[in-house]
Protein backbone atom coordinates (compact mmCIF):
# COMPACT_ATOMS: atom_id res chain seq x y z
CA UNK A 1 0.00 0.00 0.00
CA UNK A 2 2.80 2.43 0.81
CA UNK A 3 4.08 2.36 -2.75
CA UNK A 4 0.58 3.16 -3.96
CA UNK A 5 0.69 6.68 -2.58
CA UNK A 6 3.75 7.82 -4.52
CA UNK A 7 2.09 8.54 -7.87
CA UNK A 8 -0.52 10.67 -6.16
CA UNK A 9 2.12 12.73 -4.40
CA UNK A 10 3.95 13.38 -7.64
CA UNK A 11 0.66 14.39 -9.21
CA UNK A 12 -0.06 17.14 -6.65
CA UNK A 13 3.48 18.44 -7.12
CA UNK A 14 3.29 18.72 -10.89
CA UNK A 15 -0.22 20.06 -11.02
CA UNK A 16 0.63 22.71 -8.38
CA UNK A 17 3.16 24.27 -10.80
CA UNK A 18 0.81 25.48 -13.47
CA UNK A 19 -2.88 25.95 -13.94
CA UNK A 20 -4.64 22.94 -15.42
CA UNK A 21 -8.14 22.84 -16.80
CA UNK A 22 -10.66 20.79 -14.78
CA UNK A 23 -10.84 18.30 -17.60
CA UNK A 24 -7.07 17.75 -17.63
CA UNK A 25 -7.18 17.39 -13.87
CA UNK A 26 -9.90 14.80 -14.05
CA UNK A 27 -7.96 12.86 -16.68
CA UNK A 28 -4.75 13.03 -14.68
CA UNK A 29 -6.44 12.03 -11.49
CA UNK A 30 -7.95 9.05 -13.27
CA UNK A 31 -4.49 8.03 -14.42
CA UNK A 32 -3.13 8.52 -10.92
CA UNK A 33 -5.96 6.50 -9.42
CA UNK A 34 -5.25 3.72 -11.88
CA UNK A 35 -1.56 3.73 -10.99
CA UNK A 36 -2.39 3.70 -7.28
CA UNK A 37 -4.76 0.78 -7.81
CA UNK A 38 -2.12 -1.04 -9.86
CA UNK A 39 0.48 -0.73 -7.14
CA UNK A 40 -2.08 -1.84 -4.55
CA UNK A 41 -2.73 -4.97 -6.64
CA UNK A 42 1.02 -5.51 -7.08
CA UNK A 43 1.85 -5.14 -3.38
CA UNK A 44 2.11 -8.87 -2.50
CA UNK A 45 4.20 -9.60 -5.57
CA UNK A 46 6.47 -6.59 -5.03
CA UNK A 47 7.00 -7.63 -1.40
CA UNK A 48 7.90 -11.13 -2.55
CA UNK A 49 10.17 -9.74 -5.26
CA UNK A 50 12.15 -7.63 -2.81
CA UNK A 51 12.09 -9.89 0.26
CA UNK A 52 12.26 -13.35 -1.32
CA UNK A 53 14.05 -12.83 -4.64
CA UNK A 54 16.10 -9.66 -5.13
CA UNK A 55 17.18 -9.23 -1.51
CA UNK A 56 18.22 -12.88 -1.11
CA UNK A 57 20.03 -12.75 -4.48
CA UNK A 58 22.15 -9.83 -3.35
CA UNK A 59 22.75 -11.46 0.02
CA UNK A 60 23.85 -14.70 -1.61
CA UNK A 61 26.16 -12.74 -3.91
CA UNK A 62 27.78 -11.30 -0.78
CA UNK A 63 27.86 -14.74 0.90
CA UNK A 64 29.60 -16.24 -2.11
CA UNK A 65 32.68 -14.21 -1.17
CA UNK A 66 32.60 -15.41 2.44
CA UNK A 67 32.94 -18.47 4.65
CA UNK A 68 29.72 -18.84 6.65
CA UNK A 69 28.49 -21.73 8.80
CA UNK A 70 25.34 -20.12 10.25
CA UNK A 71 26.83 -20.14 13.77
CA UNK A 72 29.54 -17.49 13.55
CA UNK A 73 29.53 -14.33 11.42
CA UNK A 74 30.39 -14.54 7.70
CA UNK A 75 34.12 -14.15 7.07
CA UNK A 76 35.21 -12.36 3.88
CA UNK A 77 37.48 -14.56 1.77
CA UNK A 78 37.41 -12.84 -1.62
CA UNK A 79 37.41 -15.23 -4.55
CA UNK A 80 38.60 -18.21 -2.48
CA UNK A 81 35.32 -20.16 -2.92
CA UNK A 82 35.43 -19.82 -6.69
CA UNK A 83 39.12 -20.70 -6.86
CA UNK A 84 38.52 -23.75 -4.68
CA UNK A 85 35.72 -24.96 -6.97
CA UNK A 86 37.77 -24.98 -10.12
CA UNK A 87 41.14 -26.03 -8.71
CA UNK A 88 41.08 -28.22 -5.61
CA UNK A 89 37.49 -29.46 -5.29
CA UNK A 90 37.42 -32.59 -7.43
CA UNK A 91 33.91 -33.46 -6.24
CA UNK A 92 32.69 -30.14 -7.62
CA UNK A 93 34.20 -30.84 -11.02
CA UNK A 94 32.74 -34.34 -10.91
CA UNK A 95 29.28 -32.91 -10.18
CA UNK A 96 29.64 -30.51 -13.12
CA UNK A 97 30.55 -33.44 -15.36
CA UNK A 98 27.63 -35.57 -14.14
CA UNK A 99 25.19 -32.71 -14.63
CA UNK A 100 26.49 -31.92 -18.12
CA UNK A 101 26.16 -35.54 -19.22
CA UNK A 102 22.65 -35.61 -17.78
CA UNK A 103 21.63 -32.41 -19.59
CA UNK A 104 23.29 -33.26 -22.90
CA UNK A 105 21.81 -36.76 -23.08
CA UNK A 106 18.37 -36.31 -21.53
CA UNK A 107 17.33 -33.11 -23.32
CA UNK A 108 17.91 -34.33 -26.93
CA UNK A 109 16.30 -37.69 -26.07
CA UNK A 110 13.29 -35.87 -24.60
CA UNK A 111 12.95 -33.77 -27.75
CA UNK A 112 13.14 -36.72 -30.12
CA UNK A 113 10.78 -38.98 -28.16
CA UNK A 114 8.17 -36.31 -27.54
CA UNK A 115 8.25 -35.09 -31.14
CA UNK A 116 7.91 -38.61 -32.53
CA UNK A 117 4.93 -39.38 -30.33
CA UNK A 118 3.32 -36.03 -31.05
CA UNK A 119 3.51 -36.87 -34.78
CA UNK A 120 2.10 -40.33 -34.12
CA UNK A 121 -0.79 -38.86 -32.12
CA UNK A 122 -1.56 -36.17 -34.68
CA UNK A 123 -4.29 -36.76 -37.30
CA UNK A 124 -7.36 -36.32 -35.07
CA UNK A 125 -7.51 -39.99 -34.24
CA UNK A 126 -9.93 -41.79 -31.93
CA UNK A 127 -9.12 -42.03 -28.22
CA UNK A 128 -6.79 -39.04 -28.63
CA UNK A 129 -7.95 -37.51 -25.33
CA UNK A 130 -7.36 -40.74 -23.43
CA UNK A 131 -3.92 -41.22 -25.00
CA UNK A 132 -2.92 -37.67 -24.20
CA UNK A 133 -3.93 -38.07 -20.56
CA UNK A 134 -2.07 -41.36 -20.16
CA UNK A 135 1.12 -40.04 -21.78
CA UNK A 136 0.98 -37.04 -19.50
CA UNK A 137 0.68 -38.94 -16.20
CA UNK A 138 4.46 -39.61 -15.84
CA UNK A 139 5.16 -35.86 -16.17
CA UNK A 140 2.97 -35.15 -13.16
CA UNK A 141 4.63 -37.65 -10.88
CA UNK A 142 8.13 -37.99 -12.35
CA UNK A 143 9.64 -35.60 -9.81
CA UNK A 144 8.08 -37.29 -6.77
CA UNK A 145 9.81 -39.30 -4.07
CA UNK A 146 7.44 -42.20 -4.71
CA UNK A 147 8.59 -42.61 -8.31
CA UNK A 148 12.26 -42.14 -7.44
CA UNK A 149 11.85 -44.85 -4.78
CA UNK A 150 10.18 -47.07 -7.36
CA UNK A 151 13.08 -46.44 -9.75
CA UNK A 152 15.52 -47.50 -7.07
CA UNK A 153 13.62 -50.78 -6.76
CA UNK A 154 13.03 -51.64 -10.40
CA UNK A 155 16.65 -50.86 -11.35
CA UNK A 156 17.99 -52.80 -8.36
CA UNK A 157 19.77 -56.16 -8.55
CA UNK A 158 16.53 -58.19 -8.71
CA UNK A 159 14.26 -55.44 -9.96
CA UNK A 160 11.89 -55.96 -12.84
CA UNK A 161 14.31 -54.48 -15.37
CA UNK A 162 16.86 -57.20 -14.71
CA UNK A 163 14.09 -59.80 -14.66
CA UNK A 164 12.90 -58.58 -18.05
CA UNK A 165 16.48 -58.66 -19.40
CA UNK A 166 16.91 -62.19 -18.03
CA UNK A 167 14.03 -63.30 -20.24
CA UNK A 168 16.28 -62.40 -23.18
CA UNK A 169 19.23 -64.15 -21.57
CA UNK A 170 20.97 -60.93 -20.48
CA UNK A 171 22.20 -60.94 -16.91
CA UNK A 172 22.92 -57.57 -15.41
CA UNK A 173 23.95 -56.49 -11.93
CA UNK A 174 22.20 -53.71 -10.00
CA UNK A 175 21.84 -50.57 -12.11
CA UNK A 176 21.55 -48.10 -9.27
CA UNK A 177 24.46 -49.78 -7.48
CA UNK A 178 26.88 -49.42 -10.38
CA UNK A 179 28.88 -46.24 -11.03
CA UNK A 180 28.52 -46.88 -14.76
CA UNK A 181 24.75 -47.29 -14.87
CA UNK A 182 23.29 -45.22 -12.02
CA UNK A 183 23.21 -42.02 -14.08
CA UNK A 184 21.51 -43.92 -16.92
CA UNK A 185 18.59 -44.73 -14.63
CA UNK A 186 18.14 -41.03 -13.87
CA UNK A 187 18.28 -40.16 -17.58
CA UNK A 188 15.59 -42.80 -18.20
CA UNK A 189 13.55 -41.24 -15.39
CA UNK A 190 13.82 -37.82 -17.07
CA UNK A 191 12.86 -39.16 -20.48
CA UNK A 192 10.03 -41.21 -18.94
CA UNK A 193 8.33 -37.90 -18.10
CA UNK A 194 8.28 -36.68 -21.71
CA UNK A 195 4.50 -36.20 -21.75
CA UNK A 196 4.41 -32.50 -20.95
CA UNK A 197 6.73 -31.72 -23.86
CA UNK A 198 4.74 -34.00 -26.16
CA UNK A 199 1.51 -32.15 -25.34
CA UNK A 200 3.11 -28.85 -26.34
CA UNK A 201 4.40 -30.32 -29.62
CA UNK A 202 1.00 -31.87 -30.28
CA UNK A 203 -0.68 -28.48 -29.97
CA UNK A 204 1.92 -27.08 -32.39
CA UNK A 205 1.61 -29.84 -34.97
CA UNK A 206 -2.14 -29.32 -35.10
CA UNK A 207 -1.70 -25.63 -35.84
CA UNK A 208 0.35 -26.13 -38.99
CA UNK A 209 -1.92 -24.83 -41.78
CA UNK A 210 -3.28 -27.62 -43.95
CA UNK A 211 -2.64 -25.60 -47.10
CA UNK A 212 1.09 -25.98 -46.57
CA UNK A 213 0.80 -29.76 -46.73
CA UNK A 214 -1.54 -29.57 -49.71
CA UNK A 215 0.84 -27.27 -51.51
CA UNK A 216 3.74 -29.59 -50.71
CA UNK A 217 1.77 -32.58 -52.04
CA UNK A 218 1.05 -30.73 -55.27
CA UNK A 219 4.77 -30.08 -55.57
CA UNK A 220 5.35 -33.80 -55.23
CA UNK A 221 6.71 -33.97 -51.69
CA UNK A 222 6.65 -37.34 -49.92
CA UNK A 223 6.08 -37.99 -46.24
CA UNK A 224 9.69 -37.33 -45.22
CA UNK A 225 10.05 -34.29 -47.43
CA UNK A 226 6.88 -32.85 -45.89
CA UNK A 227 8.21 -33.49 -42.41
CA UNK A 228 11.57 -31.80 -43.02
CA UNK A 229 10.28 -28.96 -45.20
CA UNK A 230 6.95 -28.16 -43.55
CA UNK A 231 6.40 -29.69 -40.10
CA UNK A 232 9.88 -29.22 -38.69
CA UNK A 233 10.33 -25.55 -39.74
CA UNK A 234 6.85 -24.71 -38.44
CA UNK A 235 7.69 -26.32 -35.10
CA UNK A 236 11.02 -24.56 -34.56
CA UNK A 237 9.58 -21.94 -32.17
CA UNK A 238 8.27 -24.77 -29.96
CA UNK A 239 11.49 -26.76 -30.30
CA UNK A 240 13.34 -23.65 -29.17
CA UNK A 241 11.01 -23.13 -26.20
CA UNK A 242 11.06 -26.79 -25.15
CA UNK A 243 14.84 -27.08 -25.44
CA UNK A 244 15.36 -23.97 -23.34
CA UNK A 245 12.93 -24.99 -20.61
CA UNK A 246 14.12 -28.61 -20.51
CA UNK A 247 17.76 -27.51 -20.29
CA UNK A 248 17.07 -25.12 -17.44
CA UNK A 249 14.98 -27.79 -15.71
CA UNK A 250 17.63 -30.48 -16.14
CA UNK A 251 20.32 -28.27 -14.58
CA UNK A 252 18.11 -28.05 -11.49
CA UNK A 253 17.18 -31.74 -11.06
CA UNK A 254 17.39 -32.91 -7.46
CA UNK A 255 14.79 -35.31 -6.03
CA UNK A 256 15.53 -38.28 -8.30
CA UNK A 257 19.26 -38.22 -7.64
CA UNK A 258 18.76 -37.70 -3.91
CA UNK A 259 16.38 -40.63 -3.49
CA UNK A 260 18.04 -43.06 -5.90
CA UNK A 261 21.45 -42.50 -4.27
CA UNK A 262 20.11 -42.32 -0.71
CA UNK A 263 21.14 -38.67 -0.43
CA UNK A 264 24.83 -39.24 -1.19
CA UNK A 265 25.16 -38.78 -4.96
CA UNK A 266 26.77 -42.23 -5.09
CA UNK A 267 27.87 -44.77 -6.07
CA UNK A 268 31.29 -43.07 -6.38
CA UNK A 269 29.62 -39.69 -7.00
CA UNK A 270 28.15 -40.96 -10.26
CA UNK A 271 24.77 -39.28 -9.53
CA UNK A 272 26.15 -36.21 -7.78
CA UNK A 273 23.95 -33.65 -9.54
CA UNK A 274 24.93 -30.02 -9.21
CA UNK A 275 21.97 -29.19 -7.00
CA UNK A 276 22.55 -32.26 -4.84
CA UNK A 277 26.17 -31.26 -4.25
CA UNK A 278 25.06 -27.70 -3.52
CA UNK A 279 22.59 -29.06 -0.98
CA UNK A 280 25.23 -31.26 0.65
CA UNK A 281 27.73 -28.40 0.84
CA UNK A 282 25.22 -25.89 2.16
CA UNK A 283 23.05 -27.92 4.47
CA UNK A 284 25.00 -31.05 5.42
CA UNK A 285 28.44 -29.43 5.77
CA UNK A 286 27.06 -25.95 6.53
CA UNK A 287 29.43 -24.37 4.00
CA UNK A 288 26.84 -21.74 3.15
CA UNK A 289 29.27 -19.34 1.50
CA UNK A 290 30.50 -22.12 -0.76
CA UNK A 291 26.94 -23.18 -1.61
CA UNK A 292 26.04 -19.56 -2.44
CA UNK A 293 29.08 -19.34 -4.72
CA UNK A 294 27.99 -22.55 -6.45
CA UNK A 295 24.51 -21.11 -6.95
CA UNK A 296 25.92 -17.97 -8.56
CA UNK A 297 28.09 -19.99 -10.92
CA UNK A 298 24.90 -21.81 -11.94
CA UNK A 299 23.07 -18.51 -12.51
CA UNK A 300 25.87 -17.26 -14.73
CA UNK A 301 26.11 -20.54 -16.66
CA UNK A 302 22.34 -20.66 -17.21
CA UNK A 303 22.26 -17.02 -18.27
CA UNK A 304 25.08 -17.74 -20.74
CA UNK A 305 23.36 -20.88 -22.06
CA UNK A 306 20.03 -19.04 -22.45
CA UNK A 307 21.74 -16.08 -24.08
CA UNK A 308 23.50 -18.40 -26.50
CA UNK A 309 20.19 -20.11 -27.33
CA UNK A 310 18.49 -16.80 -28.01
CA UNK A 311 21.42 -15.75 -30.18
CA UNK A 312 21.33 -18.96 -32.24
CA UNK A 313 17.53 -18.69 -32.55
CA UNK A 314 17.82 -16.16 -35.37
CA UNK A 315 19.56 -18.77 -37.55
CA UNK A 316 17.15 -21.63 -37.12
CA UNK A 317 13.89 -20.54 -35.52
CA UNK A 318 11.25 -19.81 -38.10
CA UNK A 319 8.52 -17.39 -37.12
CA UNK A 320 5.37 -17.88 -39.18
CA UNK A 321 4.69 -14.94 -41.43
CA UNK A 322 8.05 -14.58 -43.21
CA UNK B 1 4.77 -18.58 -48.66
CA UNK B 2 1.67 -20.55 -49.53
CA UNK B 3 0.68 -18.12 -52.22
CA UNK B 4 4.01 -18.36 -54.02
CA UNK B 5 3.79 -22.12 -54.08
CA UNK B 6 0.23 -22.01 -55.32
CA UNK B 7 1.06 -19.54 -58.05
CA UNK B 8 3.14 -22.18 -59.83
CA UNK B 9 1.44 -24.39 -62.34
CA UNK B 10 0.45 -27.65 -60.66
CA UNK B 11 2.86 -30.38 -61.56
CA UNK B 12 1.78 -33.91 -62.33
CA UNK B 13 1.89 -35.95 -59.14
CA UNK B 14 5.09 -37.96 -59.14
CA UNK B 15 6.90 -39.50 -56.20
CA UNK B 16 3.74 -39.70 -54.20
CA UNK B 17 3.27 -43.21 -52.90
CA UNK B 18 -0.04 -44.88 -53.43
CA UNK B 19 -1.34 -44.76 -49.88
CA UNK B 20 -2.05 -48.10 -48.23
CA UNK B 21 -5.44 -48.97 -46.87
CA UNK B 22 -6.40 -46.30 -44.31
CA UNK B 23 -7.89 -48.87 -41.95
CA UNK B 24 -4.62 -50.79 -41.79
CA UNK B 25 -2.68 -47.59 -41.25
CA UNK B 26 -4.95 -46.58 -38.38
CA UNK B 27 -4.60 -50.02 -36.78
CA UNK B 28 -0.79 -49.86 -37.02
CA UNK B 29 -0.81 -46.39 -35.56
CA UNK B 30 -2.99 -47.39 -32.60
CA UNK B 31 -0.91 -50.52 -32.03
CA UNK B 32 2.30 -48.45 -31.87
CA UNK B 33 0.74 -46.03 -29.42
CA UNK B 34 -0.62 -48.76 -27.18
CA UNK B 35 2.82 -50.45 -27.15
CA UNK B 36 4.49 -47.18 -26.18
CA UNK B 37 1.94 -46.65 -23.41
CA UNK B 38 2.37 -50.18 -22.13
CA UNK B 39 6.14 -49.75 -21.80
CA UNK B 40 5.74 -46.30 -20.29
CA UNK B 41 3.16 -47.19 -17.68
CA UNK B 42 4.25 -50.72 -16.84
CA UNK B 43 6.45 -49.74 -13.87
CA UNK B 44 3.56 -47.80 -12.40
CA UNK B 45 1.03 -50.57 -12.88
CA UNK B 46 3.54 -53.08 -11.54
CA UNK B 47 4.01 -51.00 -8.39
CA UNK B 48 0.28 -50.80 -7.77
CA UNK B 49 -0.05 -54.56 -8.34
CA UNK B 50 2.95 -55.28 -6.09
CA UNK B 51 1.38 -53.25 -3.30
CA UNK B 52 -1.41 -55.85 -3.14
CA UNK B 53 0.93 -58.86 -3.03
CA UNK B 54 2.21 -60.57 0.12
CA UNK B 55 5.70 -59.29 1.00
CA UNK B 56 7.49 -62.51 0.07
CA UNK B 57 6.12 -62.38 -3.49
CA UNK B 58 6.89 -58.81 -4.45
CA UNK B 59 10.17 -59.29 -6.26
CA UNK B 60 9.62 -62.81 -7.46
CA UNK B 61 7.55 -61.91 -10.46
CA UNK B 62 7.47 -59.64 -13.43
CA UNK B 63 3.75 -60.23 -13.77
CA UNK B 64 0.91 -58.35 -12.19
CA UNK B 65 -1.38 -60.86 -10.55
CA UNK B 66 -0.97 -62.71 -7.32
CA UNK B 67 -2.60 -65.86 -6.07
CA UNK B 68 -3.06 -64.23 -2.66
CA UNK B 69 -3.98 -60.57 -3.03
CA UNK B 70 -3.84 -58.79 0.30
CA UNK B 71 -4.36 -55.38 1.88
CA UNK B 72 -1.82 -56.06 4.63
CA UNK B 73 0.81 -53.81 2.99
CA UNK B 74 -1.55 -50.88 3.36
CA UNK B 75 -2.44 -51.54 6.99
CA UNK B 76 1.17 -52.25 7.95
CA UNK B 77 2.68 -49.44 5.90
CA UNK B 78 0.30 -46.83 7.28
CA UNK B 79 1.90 -46.99 10.73
CA UNK B 80 5.14 -48.90 10.08
CA UNK B 81 7.76 -48.49 12.81
CA UNK B 82 7.66 -44.93 14.10
CA UNK B 83 5.99 -43.63 10.98
CA UNK B 84 2.53 -42.15 11.01
CA UNK B 85 1.08 -41.64 7.56
CA UNK B 86 -2.23 -40.23 8.85
CA UNK B 87 -0.19 -37.31 10.11
CA UNK B 88 1.88 -36.97 6.91
CA UNK B 89 -1.16 -36.97 4.67
CA UNK B 90 -2.89 -34.41 6.88
CA UNK B 91 0.23 -32.19 6.86
CA UNK B 92 0.67 -32.48 3.10
CA UNK B 93 -2.96 -31.56 2.47
CA UNK B 94 -2.77 -28.63 4.88
CA UNK B 95 0.34 -27.20 3.22
CA UNK B 96 -1.08 -27.82 -0.25
CA UNK B 97 -4.39 -26.08 0.48
CA UNK B 98 -2.74 -23.04 2.02
CA UNK B 99 -0.24 -22.85 -0.87
CA UNK B 100 -3.01 -23.10 -3.46
CA UNK B 101 -5.00 -20.33 -1.76
CA UNK B 102 -1.91 -18.13 -1.63
CA UNK B 103 -1.01 -18.73 -5.26
CA UNK B 104 -4.54 -18.08 -6.47
CA UNK B 105 -4.90 -14.79 -4.63
CA UNK B 106 -1.42 -13.34 -5.10
CA UNK B 107 -0.96 -14.45 -8.70
CA UNK B 108 -4.38 -13.31 -9.87
CA UNK B 109 -4.15 -9.80 -8.38
CA UNK B 110 -0.65 -9.39 -9.83
CA UNK B 111 -1.79 -10.67 -13.18
CA UNK B 112 -4.76 -8.28 -13.22
CA UNK B 113 -2.47 -5.31 -12.67
CA UNK B 114 -0.10 -6.38 -15.47
CA UNK B 115 -2.85 -7.33 -17.89
CA UNK B 116 -5.30 -4.46 -17.44
CA UNK B 117 -3.83 -1.43 -15.68
CA UNK B 118 -1.38 1.22 -16.80
CA UNK B 119 1.14 2.47 -14.32
CA UNK B 120 4.61 3.95 -14.30
CA UNK B 121 7.35 1.31 -14.33
CA UNK B 122 5.13 -1.34 -15.88
CA UNK B 123 7.58 -2.38 -18.61
CA UNK B 124 10.44 -2.68 -16.18
CA UNK B 125 8.44 -4.70 -13.65
CA UNK B 126 7.10 -7.01 -16.33
CA UNK B 127 10.63 -7.65 -17.57
CA UNK B 128 11.57 -8.43 -13.97
CA UNK B 129 8.70 -10.91 -13.80
CA UNK B 130 9.82 -12.65 -16.98
CA UNK B 131 13.40 -12.69 -15.73
CA UNK B 132 12.46 -14.53 -12.55
CA UNK B 133 10.81 -17.27 -14.62
CA UNK B 134 14.28 -18.32 -15.75
CA UNK B 135 16.04 -17.76 -12.43
CA UNK B 136 17.34 -21.02 -10.91
CA UNK B 137 15.83 -21.48 -7.46
CA UNK B 138 19.22 -22.44 -6.01
CA UNK B 139 20.34 -18.83 -5.92
CA UNK B 140 17.78 -17.94 -3.25
CA UNK B 141 17.93 -21.28 -1.42
CA UNK B 142 20.76 -20.48 0.98
CA UNK B 143 19.83 -16.86 1.81
CA UNK B 144 16.15 -17.76 2.26
CA UNK B 145 17.13 -20.51 4.65
CA UNK B 146 19.27 -18.09 6.61
CA UNK B 147 16.42 -15.57 6.69
CA UNK B 148 13.78 -18.10 7.76
CA UNK B 149 16.18 -19.45 10.37
CA UNK B 150 16.70 -15.91 11.68
CA UNK B 151 12.92 -15.42 11.88
CA UNK B 152 12.54 -18.67 13.84
CA UNK B 153 10.51 -20.29 11.06
CA UNK B 154 12.45 -23.58 10.98
CA UNK B 155 10.14 -26.43 11.97
CA UNK B 156 7.08 -24.43 10.98
CA UNK B 157 5.11 -24.50 7.73
CA UNK B 158 5.65 -20.80 7.11
CA UNK B 159 8.67 -21.19 4.75
CA UNK B 160 6.59 -23.55 2.61
CA UNK B 161 3.46 -21.39 2.53
CA UNK B 162 4.29 -17.68 2.87
CA UNK B 163 6.24 -17.44 -0.42
CA UNK B 164 3.12 -18.57 -2.28
CA UNK B 165 1.16 -15.68 -0.75
CA UNK B 166 3.78 -13.30 -2.14
CA UNK B 167 3.52 -14.48 -5.73
CA UNK B 168 6.98 -16.04 -6.06
CA UNK B 169 5.77 -18.26 -8.86
CA UNK B 170 6.28 -16.15 -11.94
CA UNK B 171 4.99 -18.92 -14.21
CA UNK B 172 1.54 -18.78 -12.69
CA UNK B 173 1.42 -15.00 -12.96
CA UNK B 174 2.54 -15.13 -16.58
CA UNK B 175 -0.10 -17.75 -17.39
CA UNK B 176 -2.83 -15.58 -15.86
CA UNK B 177 -1.59 -12.39 -17.55
CA UNK B 178 -1.81 -14.14 -20.91
CA UNK B 179 -5.29 -15.37 -20.14
CA UNK B 180 -6.67 -12.07 -18.84
CA UNK B 181 -5.22 -10.23 -21.85
CA UNK B 182 -7.30 -12.46 -24.10
CA UNK B 183 -10.58 -11.41 -22.42
CA UNK B 184 -12.52 -8.66 -24.23
CA UNK B 185 -11.86 -5.19 -22.85
CA UNK B 186 -15.37 -3.95 -23.56
CA UNK B 187 -16.55 -5.77 -20.44
CA UNK B 188 -14.25 -3.72 -18.19
CA UNK B 189 -15.16 -0.50 -19.98
CA UNK B 190 -18.89 -0.97 -19.57
CA UNK B 191 -18.44 -1.91 -15.92
CA UNK B 192 -16.40 1.23 -15.42
CA UNK B 193 -19.17 3.33 -16.97
CA UNK B 194 -21.52 1.71 -14.47
CA UNK B 195 -19.27 3.02 -11.72
CA UNK B 196 -17.27 -0.09 -10.84
CA UNK B 197 -13.83 0.43 -9.32
CA UNK B 198 -10.82 -1.71 -10.19
CA UNK B 199 -11.38 -4.04 -7.28
CA UNK B 200 -14.98 -4.68 -8.30
CA UNK B 201 -14.00 -5.17 -11.95
CA UNK B 202 -11.35 -7.65 -10.81
CA UNK B 203 -13.61 -9.68 -8.52
CA UNK B 204 -16.89 -9.48 -10.45
CA UNK B 205 -15.81 -9.52 -14.07
CA UNK B 206 -12.27 -10.72 -14.59
CA UNK B 207 -12.08 -13.53 -12.07
CA UNK B 208 -15.29 -15.32 -13.09
CA UNK B 209 -14.11 -15.24 -16.70
CA UNK B 210 -10.60 -16.36 -15.80
CA UNK B 211 -11.76 -19.55 -14.08
CA UNK B 212 -10.03 -21.86 -16.61
CA UNK B 213 -6.68 -20.22 -15.83
CA UNK B 214 -7.50 -20.30 -12.11
CA UNK B 215 -8.12 -24.03 -12.41
CA UNK B 216 -4.77 -24.64 -14.10
CA UNK B 217 -2.95 -22.62 -11.44
CA UNK B 218 -4.79 -24.43 -8.63
CA UNK B 219 -4.01 -27.87 -9.96
CA UNK B 220 -0.35 -27.17 -10.66
CA UNK B 221 0.02 -25.53 -7.25
CA UNK B 222 -1.35 -28.72 -5.78
CA UNK B 223 0.95 -30.99 -7.76
CA UNK B 224 4.08 -28.97 -7.01
CA UNK B 225 3.29 -28.54 -3.36
CA UNK B 226 2.39 -32.22 -2.99
CA UNK B 227 5.57 -33.41 -4.74
CA UNK B 228 7.86 -30.86 -3.09
CA UNK B 229 10.76 -32.64 -1.44
CA UNK B 230 13.60 -30.17 -1.01
CA UNK B 231 11.51 -27.59 0.90
CA UNK B 232 10.20 -29.96 3.56
CA UNK B 233 13.62 -31.64 3.72
CA UNK B 234 15.21 -28.30 4.61
CA UNK B 235 12.60 -26.86 6.91
CA UNK B 236 10.79 -29.75 8.60
CA UNK B 237 13.10 -31.65 10.93
CA UNK B 238 10.50 -32.71 13.51
CA UNK B 239 8.81 -35.92 12.44
CA UNK B 240 5.32 -34.82 13.51
CA UNK B 241 5.56 -32.03 10.91
CA UNK B 242 6.67 -34.27 8.04
CA UNK B 243 4.88 -34.40 4.72
CA UNK B 244 4.21 -37.54 2.67
CA UNK B 245 7.49 -37.33 0.64
CA UNK B 246 9.50 -37.12 3.86
CA UNK B 247 7.55 -40.08 5.24
CA UNK B 248 8.39 -42.08 2.12
CA UNK B 249 12.04 -41.11 2.38
CA UNK B 250 12.13 -42.23 6.03
CA UNK B 251 10.43 -45.47 5.01
CA UNK B 252 13.08 -46.03 2.37
CA UNK B 253 15.92 -45.25 4.79
CA UNK B 254 14.74 -47.33 7.70
CA UNK B 255 13.52 -50.52 6.13
CA UNK B 256 15.05 -53.62 4.63
CA UNK B 257 14.09 -55.79 1.72
CA UNK B 258 11.10 -57.31 3.52
CA UNK B 259 8.99 -54.18 3.88
CA UNK B 260 8.96 -52.99 0.27
CA UNK B 261 5.30 -53.97 0.22
CA UNK B 262 4.51 -51.20 2.68
CA UNK B 263 6.65 -48.74 0.74
CA UNK B 264 4.83 -49.54 -2.51
CA UNK B 265 1.47 -49.26 -0.76
CA UNK B 266 2.29 -45.83 0.64
CA UNK B 267 3.82 -44.71 -2.68
CA UNK B 268 0.63 -45.72 -4.44
CA UNK B 269 -1.47 -43.76 -1.94
CA UNK B 270 0.82 -40.75 -2.28
CA UNK B 271 0.37 -40.66 -6.07
CA UNK B 272 -3.38 -41.26 -6.00
CA UNK B 273 -4.50 -37.67 -5.21
CA UNK B 274 -2.39 -36.17 -8.02
CA UNK B 275 -3.43 -38.66 -10.67
CA UNK B 276 -7.03 -38.49 -9.47
CA UNK B 277 -7.30 -34.71 -9.65
CA UNK B 278 -5.54 -34.72 -13.00
CA UNK B 279 -7.92 -37.19 -14.58
CA UNK B 280 -10.91 -35.25 -13.24
CA UNK B 281 -9.65 -31.98 -14.67
CA UNK B 282 -7.61 -33.22 -17.62
CA UNK B 283 -9.34 -31.30 -20.39
CA UNK B 284 -8.86 -27.99 -18.64
CA UNK B 285 -5.30 -28.83 -17.72
CA UNK B 286 -4.04 -30.06 -21.05
CA UNK B 287 -5.34 -26.94 -22.80
CA UNK B 288 -3.48 -24.85 -20.22
CA UNK B 289 -0.29 -26.85 -20.65
CA UNK B 290 -0.46 -26.66 -24.40
CA UNK B 291 -0.75 -22.88 -24.37
CA UNK B 292 1.76 -22.06 -21.64
CA UNK B 293 4.28 -24.86 -21.49
CA UNK B 294 3.90 -25.59 -17.80
CA UNK B 295 5.18 -28.92 -16.54
How is this structure best described in words?
The complex is a heterodimer of chains A (322) and B (295). Chain A is mainly alpha-helical. In chain A, 72% of the residues lie in helices and 1% in strands. A two-stranded antiparallel ribbon of chain A has the order 1-2. In chain A, a hairpin with a 7-residue loop joins strand 1 and strand 2. In chain A, helix 11 packs antiparallel against helix 14 and helix 13 packs antiparallel against helix 14. The longest helix of chain A is centred in the N-terminal third of the chain and has 42 residues. Chain B starts with a helix and ends with a helix. The longest helix of chain B has 32 residues. Chain B has two domains: 57 residues, no CATH class; 173 residues, Orthogonal Bundle (MetI-like fold). Helices cover 69% and strands 0% of the residues of chain B. Chain B is globular. Chain B is an all-alpha fold.
Gist of the model:
The complex is a heterodimer of chains A (322) and B (295). Chain A is an all-alpha fold and 322 residues long. Chain A has 14 helices and 2 strands.
